[in-house]
């Protein structure tokens, strides 16, 4: 499975690709940071992020796009920009017919470091080790994008199985309720 991981942001949007090699094996493919000038109009910045996502999807043909779930911060303006960047990434994936998985920062940190409260330095160190990189990815947004991709490689298949099991259980429950309703109707 090939995963395009995205750490959304307007000023710096980390974007990286990792291949799952089975089990907990992961392999580095590519990483970069999309930068937009803070003084540029918002639509132009969002377009730059969307265009970059389109290019990466076309160039690397991922199976899924993993995006950091926007979480509450004290700076509302920062949250809005992150949410808007996240939205254009999801839109680019949807246009390409790709599923999008959202992971919280604590899920990503716990997957990669074993601790949901790990700091950026710990995440970068583990990403460097796990992908056997010669140097840590810089800036932190690049390492975060790779961490998101790794997280999805490890959590995604389990989450898919859980969703399939839940859908099957819901279908069985609907079928069972319909049979009970039919039996009750026939007993009258």
From TrEMBL:
Documented EC number(s): 3.1.21.10
Keyword Glycoprotein applies: no
Subcellular location: Cytoplasm
Entry-linked InterPro entries: RNaseH-like_sf (IPR012337), RNaseH_sf (IPR036397), X-over_junc_endoDNase_Mg_BS (IPR020563), X-over_junc_endoDNase_RuvC (IPR002176)
GO BP term, pick one: DNA repair
Cellular component annotations (GO), alphabetically ordered: cytoplasm; Holliday junction resolvase complex
Quaternary structure annotation from Swiss-Prot or TrEMBL: Homodimer which binds Holliday junction (HJ) DNA. The HJ becomes 2-fold symmetrical on binding to RuvC with unstacked arms; it has a different conformation from HJ DNA in complex with RuvA. In the full resolvosome a probable DNA-RuvA(4)-RuvB(12)-RuvC(2) complex forms which resolves the HJ.
Residues annotated for Mg(2+) 1 binding in this entry: 7, 141
Function: The RuvA-RuvB-RuvC complex processes Holliday junction (HJ) DNA during genetic recombination and DNA repair. Endonuclease that resolves HJ intermediates. Cleaves cruciform DNA by making single-stranded nicks across the HJ at symmetrical positions within the homologous arms, yielding a 5'-phosphate and a 3'-hydroxyl group; requires a central core of homology in the junction. The consensus cleavage sequence is 5'-(A/T)TT(C/G)-3'. Cleavage occurs on the 3'-side of the TT dinucleotide at the point of strand exchange.
Native organism: Pseudonocardia dioxanivorans (strain ATCC 55486 / DSM 44775 / JCM 13855 / CB1190)
Cofactor note text: Binds 2 Mg(2+) ion per subunit.
Cofactor section: Mg(2+)
GO molecular function per UniProt: crossover junction DNA endonuclease activity; DNA binding; magnesium ion binding
Family in the record: Belongs to the RuvC family.
The name this protein goes by in its record: Crossover junction endodeoxyribonuclease RuvC
UniProt feature coiled coil, ranges: none
Alphabetized UniProt keyword annotations: Cytoplasm, DNA damage, DNA recombination, DNA repair, DNA-binding, Endonuclease, Hydrolase, Magnesium, Metal-binding, Nuclease
Main localization of the protein described in the UniProt heading: cytoplasm
Amino acids binding Mg(2+) 2: 68
Pfam families (UniProt xref): RuvC
HAMAP family according to UniProt: RuvC (MF_00034)
Recorded catalytic activity of this chain's protein: Endonucleolytic cleavage at a junction such as a reciprocal single-stranded crossover between two homologous DNA duplexes (Holliday junction)
Residue positions of the active site: 7, 68, 141
Membrane-spanning residues: none
């Amino acid at each position: 499975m090939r995963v395009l991981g995205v750490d959304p942001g307007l000023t710096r949007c980390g974007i990286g690709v990792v291949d799952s090699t089975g089990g907990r094996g992961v392999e580095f493919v590519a990483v970069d940071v999309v930068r937009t000038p803070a003084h540029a109009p918002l639509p132009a910045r969002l377009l730059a992020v969307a265009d970059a996502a389109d290019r990466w999807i076309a160039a690397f043909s991922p199976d899924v796009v993993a995006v950091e779930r926007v979480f509450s911060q004290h700076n509302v303006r920062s949250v809005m920009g992150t949410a808007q960047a996240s939205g254009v990434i999801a839109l680019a994936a949807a246009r390409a017919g790709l599923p999008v998985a959202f992971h919280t920062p604590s899920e990503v940190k716990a997957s990669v470091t074993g601790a949901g409260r790990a700091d950026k330095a710990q995440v970068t160190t583990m990403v460097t080790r796990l992908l056997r990189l010669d140097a840590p990815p810089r800036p932190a947004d690049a390492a975060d994008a790779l961490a998101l991709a790794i997280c999805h490689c490890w959590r995604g298949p389990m989450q898919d199985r859980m969703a399939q099991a839940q859908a099957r259980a819901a279908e069985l429950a609907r079928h069972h309720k319909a049979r009970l309703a039919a039996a009750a109707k026939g007993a009258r």
